[in-house]
Amino acid sequence: MPEHLKRSAADLHLPRYAEIRRALEEAIMSGAWRPGRRVPSEHALMEQFGCSRMTVNKALSALAEAGLILRKRRSGSFVASPASEQTVLEIHDIPKEIAASGREHRFEILSRHRRKAGPDDAERLGVKPGAPVLAMAVRHFAAGKPFAMEDRLINLGRVPEAEAEPFDTLPPGSWLLARIPWSEAEHQIRAANLDAETASRLDLAPGAAGLVVDRRTWQGGETITCVTLVYPGDRHRLTARFGPPRA
After folding, report:
1. What pLDDT is recorded for position 13?
2. Which helix (H) or strand (E) holds 97?
3. Cystine design at 134: which of 73, 154, 165, 215 (Cβ 3.0–4.6 Å)?
4. Rounded to the nearest 5°, which phi and psi values hold at 243?
C-alpha cells in the first residue's frame, strides 16, 4: 500500500468507508495528489483496503460531494481543481480572490465601447436613455485557465475618469473598488446554461452549467456600475454565514 494511503492509529475506530475517505482526502489536501491526477480505480482501492466495492463507492461518493474529486463514467475519478468560494454578502476583488487561492491572475479586455445608454443600459444602470456609459467585456484567468467572464457597464456621468483609464494593470472591477467608495450593493444569483460564445470563452461545452452573479453598486443613491459575472458552474460556489434575526 502506498505510504500516503496507509492506515493510522487514529483511523482504527472509523467506519471502513470513512477510513478510506480520510486516507484519500489527506493525499489530496497534502498536495501528494495534484489536481487532474487519476484516483486509483475502485478495484485497486478494494485490494488496498481489503473491503467491498460498495464501501469504496461510498467513500468516493463522499469525496465527490465535498468537491475534492470528479467522477466520470467510464473514465474513473480524478482530483478536482480547487473550487473558488465567494461569500454572497461581500464585493470581492477577483485578482485578490484568485491570488488568495495560490494561483496567478491574468485578465484580457475583449471589448470596450463608450456609448449613449440605450433602453437596456438605462434600465441596468438606472440612468436616463442617452446618458454616457462605458461598456466592457473582460475575461479573467486563474493559473492560465478561464476563471470568469465579466460584462460591465460604468456610469460615466458618475465616474467620468473611467473613459480615459486604459485598464492595463487593473481590471475595471479592481480599479473601481480602489477608487470609488460604494455605499450600497445588490447581488442577484442564478444558474444558467451557457450560450455557445460564453461557454467557448470559458473552455466549456455549449449549454454547460454556469453560475451567474448580477451585481449593482451605488454611491449616495446613484448607480456607479453594474456587472454580470459568469463562472463555470462546477468550479465556483457562493457561501453566506449569518445569524438569526434580532427580536
Report:
1. 57
2. helix 94-100
3. 154
4. -115, 175
CA distances from 25 to 7, 76, 150, 197 (A): 13, 17, 34, 36
Q: Which of 79, 96, 116 is the last residue of a domain?
A: 79
pLDDT at 90 (0 to 100): 67
Residues 6 or more apart whose Cβ sits within 8 Å of residue 132: 114, 115, 116, 117, 156, 157, 163
Asked whether residue 89 falls in the same domain as residue 106, the answer is yes
Yes or no: say if 175 and 168 are a contact pair by the CB < 8 Å rule. no
Can you give the residue range of the structural domain that contains 235?
84-239
* Average of per-residue pLDDT across 110-119: 96
The upper half-sphere exposure of residue 247, i.e. CA atoms within 13 Å in the direction of its Cβ, equals 0
Nearest Cα to 33, choosing from 70, 85, 8? 70
pTM: 0.64
Q: Are residues 220 and 101 in the same domain?
A: yes
55 and 88 belong to one structural domain: no
Handedness of CA 131, 134, 137, 140 (dihedral sign): negative
Statement: residue 193 has pLDDT above 90:
yes
Place of cell 485578482: 95
CATH number at residue 44: 1.10.10.10
* Residue labelled with grid coordinates 487519476: 38
